[in-house]
TrEMBL record:
Protein family (similarity comment): Belongs to the UPF0045 family.
Organism placement in taxonomy: Bacteria, Bacillati, Actinomycetota, Actinomycetes, Kitasatosporales
Alphabetized Pfam families for the sequence: Thiamine_BP
Name assigned to this protein: MTH1187 family thiamine-binding protein
Domain Thiamine-binding protein span(s) in chain numbering: 3-92
NCBIfam families named among the record's database cross-references: MTH1187 family thiamine-binding protein (TIGR00106)
Amino acid sequence: MIVAFSVTPLGVGEDVGEYVADAVRVVRESGLPHRTDAMFTSVEGEWEECMDVVRRAVAAVEARAPRVSLVLKADIRPGVTNGLTSKVETVERHLS
């Protein structure tokens, strides 16, 4: 499965980069395949693994912010691996 999620601290002002970095650090330390862009961080693995990473990323932000917003989207497709790369490669192939 691939989980794309965004964790946003609320009540800390407009500059939230350091809080978001706490969440991304959790993802990077998880060892799961991942990708971060301007809007979301995507992580790939089994249900329990992905949800644990999301839970810990939220907790990392929650430890320093009075309120946290979480947006999550999941692609649940058993038996598929390397989806983070293969999905992008398919689109790129169609663009060339």
